[in-house]
C-alpha cells in the first residue's frame, strides 16, 4: 500500500459522505460539529463539559459557544457535576432529546438508502472491510478508546436474538448460578417478540463494540394499558463500566416516551445490584418486593416503575 492509495480512498470516502448530505439537509439547522455534540449527549444521561470536549477534540471556547447556544435554545441544561463540583454537568432536555432523535433518524434513513444500493450478498464483505479498517487504523494509529463512545446501539441483525438467549443463559449461570429454567424464560420472551411485535411500540437494541455484540435490552408492551416493559438488560463483563447499560436504558426510556407510553415498568431481582443502580439513576422507583424460588435459587423479586412525563407535563 502507498500514500497515494490512502489518499485515493480518502477522496472517494469524502465524496461519498458529501453525496449522502446532498442539499445539506442532514444536519439542519445545526452544523456538523453541533450535531456531533448533540449525538454524544444523547448517548448517556449526562456528561461533564470536560469529558465532552475530550471526546470530540474541540477547543474549549468553541464548545462553550455551542453549549451556550444550545442552552439558550432549551436543548440542554447545565449544573454542577456530582463527581467534581468544579466541573459542569451537561445533559439534554426533552427538546434536546427530540432534536437529537430527529438527527439520528435522518442519519439512519440516509445510510439505509445507501445500503439499499448494496447487494445483500456484498453486505457482509462490506461490513468486514469496515471492521478491518477500524481494527488496523484505530488504536495502532494513536486513537483512544472513548468508552461509551465506542459502542453503537443498533437494531438486531439475523442471529442476534439467538445471541440474546445464549448470552443471558451463560452469564447468569456463571455469575449467579441460575439453571436452565432462566434460559427457557429468556427463550420464550425472545420468541414472542420475534413472532409477533409492533415495531412502532416494541423494539430491541443491540450494543455493538468493535464489530461484536456486547449488550442488549428490549422494550415490549405490558398488559396494563399505556405501559411498556423493559426486559433483558445485559452488558458483557468486559464492556461494563463504559456507560453502555445507561445508554441502553436511556434508549428504552426515550423510545417508550416517543411511542406515547405513560409508564415504563420492569421486574428484576435484588441480587442484580449493578442493574438496580442503573435503574435508580434513571428515576425508576421500587414498587414491590416478593420472595420466590426460581432458576434454582431463592430470590427476592422486585417491581420497578418510571412515570414517563410528556413535554406538556
Automatic annotation (TrEMBL):
<dbReference type="InterPro" id="IPR036388">
    <property type="entry name" value="WH-like_DNA-bd_sf"/>
</dbReference>
<dbReference type="Pfam" id="PF12802">
    <property type="entry name" value="MarR_2"/>
</dbReference>
<dbReference type="InterPro" id="IPR000182">
    <property type="entry name" value="GNAT_dom"/>
</dbReference>
<dbReference type="InterPro" id="IPR016181">
    <property type="entry name" value="Acyl_CoA_acyltransferase"/>
</dbReference>
<keyword id="KW-0808">Transferase</keyword>
<dbReference type="InterPro" id="IPR036390">
    <property type="entry name" value="WH_DNA-bd_sf"/>
</dbReference>
<dbReference type="GO" id="GO:0008080">
    <property type="term" value="F:N-acetyltransferase activity"/>
</dbReference>
<feature type="domain" description="N-acetyltransferase">
    <location>
        <begin position="151"/>
        <end position="305"/>
    </location>
</feature>
<dbReference type="Pfam" id="PF00583">
    <property type="entry name" value="Acetyltransf_1"/>
</dbReference>
<dbReference type="GO" id="GO:0003700">
    <property type="term" value="F:DNA-binding transcription factor activity"/>
</dbReference>
<dbReference type="InterPro" id="IPR000835">
    <property type="entry name" value="HTH_MarR-typ"/>
</dbReference>
<dbReference type="InterPro" id="IPR050769">
    <property type="entry name" value="NAT_camello-type"/>
</dbReference>
<protein>
    <submittedName>
        <fullName>MarR family transcriptional regulator</fullName>
    </submittedName>
</protein>
<feature type="domain" description="HTH marR-type">
    <location>
        <begin position="1"/>
        <end position="135"/>
    </location>
</feature>
Amino acid at each position: 500500500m502507498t500514500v497515494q492509495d490512502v489518499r485515493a480512498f480518502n477522496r472517494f470516502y469524502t465524496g461519498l459522505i458529501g453525496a449522502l448530505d446532498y442539499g445539506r439537509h442532514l444536519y439542519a439547522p445545526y452544523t456538523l460539529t453541533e450535531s456531533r455534540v448533540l449525538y454524544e449527549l444523547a448517548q448517556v444521561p449526562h456528561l461533564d463539559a470536560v469529558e465532552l470536549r475530550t471526546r470530540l477534540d474541540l477547543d474549549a471556547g468553541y464548545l462553550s459557544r455551542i453549549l451556550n447556544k444550545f442552552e439558550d435554545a432549551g436543548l440542554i441544561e447545565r449544573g454542577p457535576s456530582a463527581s467534581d463540583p468544579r466541573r459542569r454537568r451537561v445533559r439534554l432536555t426533552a427538546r434536546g432529546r427530540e432534536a437529537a432523535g430527529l438527527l439520528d433518524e435522518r442519519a439512519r434513513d440516509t445510510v439505509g438508502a445507501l445500503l439499499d444500493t448494496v447487494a445483500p450478498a456484498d453486505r457482509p464483505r462490506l461490513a468486514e472491510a469496515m471492521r478491518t479498517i477500524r481494527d488496523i487504523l484505530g488504536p495502532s494509529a494513536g486513537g483512544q478508546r472513548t468508552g461509551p463512545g465506542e459502542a453503537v446501539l443498533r437494531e438486531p441483525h439475523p442471529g442476534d436474538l439467538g445471541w440474546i438467549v445464549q448470552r443471558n443463559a451463560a452469564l447468569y449461570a456463571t455469575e449467579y448460578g441460575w439453571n436452565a429454567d432462566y434460559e427457557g424464560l429468556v427463550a420464550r420472551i425472545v420468541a414472542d417478540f420475534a413472532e409477533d411485535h409492533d415495531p412502532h411500540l416494541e423494539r430491541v437494541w443491540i450494543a455493538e463494540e468493535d464489530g461484536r455484540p456486547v449488550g442488549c435490552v428490549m422494550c415490549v408492551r405490558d398488559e396494563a394499558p399505556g405501559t411498556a416493559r423493559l426486559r433483558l438488560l445485559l452488558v458483557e463483563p468486559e464492556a461494563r463500566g463504559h456507560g453502555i447499560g445507561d445508554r441502553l436504558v436511556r434508549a428504552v426510556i426515550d423510545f417508550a416516551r416517543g411511542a406515547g407510553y405513560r409508564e415504563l415498568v420492569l421486574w428484576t431481582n435484588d441480587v442484580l445490584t449493578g442493574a438496580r443502580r442503573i435503574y435508580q439513576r434513571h428515576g425508576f422507583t421500587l414498587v414491590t418486593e416478593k420472595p420466590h424460588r426460581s432458576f434454582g435459587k431463592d430470590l427476592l423479586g422486585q417491581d420497578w416503575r418510571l412515570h414517563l412525563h410528556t413535554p406538556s407535563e
